[in-house]
Amino acid sequence: MAVLVESHATLGDAQRALGSDGTYLGGGTLVMREVNAGALQGRILRTSDPALRQIRPSLDSVEIGAGVTMAMILAERDLAHLHPVARAVGGPQVRVMATVGGNLFAVHPYGDLTVALLALGARVVSAGGAQRPIEDFLRERDRTGLVATVQVPRPREPRGFAFLKVSRVKPKGVSVLSVAAHLPRDGGRLRGVRIAFGAMGPTPLRAQAAERVLEGSALTPDLIARAAAAATDGLDPPTDALASAWYRREVAGVHLRRLLERML
Hints:
Blueprint: E1 3-8, H1 11-18, E2 22-24, H2 31-36, E3 42-47, E4 55-57, E5 61-65, H3 70-74, H4 83-87, H5 92-95, H6 100-105, H7 112-120, E6 123-126, E7 131-133, H8 134-139, E8 147-153, E9 161-167, E10 175-182, E11 185-186, E12 189-190, E13 194-198, E14 205-206, H9 208-214, H10 221-229, H11 245-261
Parallel strand pairs: 1-3, 2-3
Antiparallel strand pairs: 4-5, 5-8, 6-7, 6-8, 9-10, 10-13, 11-12, 13-14
Helix pairs in contact: 9-10, 10-11
């Protein structure tokens, strides 16, 4: 079967034309690799909708179009909290192509930005306008349709958010695992803690046991040690070519501890 590329003026048009046999082309870093390898044929849909590449800041959040690239994130001052995450995605050639929307659908060892968005409590807006928490989106992402924007809260404190990517090849190797933490503080105590891991399950997942340890307390070295000990409770890491499930369980708490120590 040949490859047939269809161009549509808007994301809505592309959504209506997608059907069950179409593949949407965003930045192309993943889809074009499959096309070039001969693993993907048939209808490929794209759109030049300018709304997909818009970044709209507000007082407490930033709405990011699904077509915004990692390079665009790095150029946007209002997304400074995401700069370390975007910088960890591939090399310069990848960052000018890889998009926020594509990252939401990327499977491990890709999708590190999604880990950060999960920790921040982002909301995903579909092509039809429906909004859902990113947790709900990730549970159903094979059936969600196209994404229009992502609404990302801003951390209230300079040390309120942190991200760490663990890879064997520096600086742009794929991740063995990644972890992000959002620790809002209220009167010196943590309120609304969110911790997310990549490569510890079929999609990025929250480390809810570690969150419960931290919630409502002041961040101290002892508390961090207890949260690190609970890091993998309820998580089921995979074994793949990069690492075994045993290895990921062994090191996840170590890397969470190092991340949280940066936030003291």
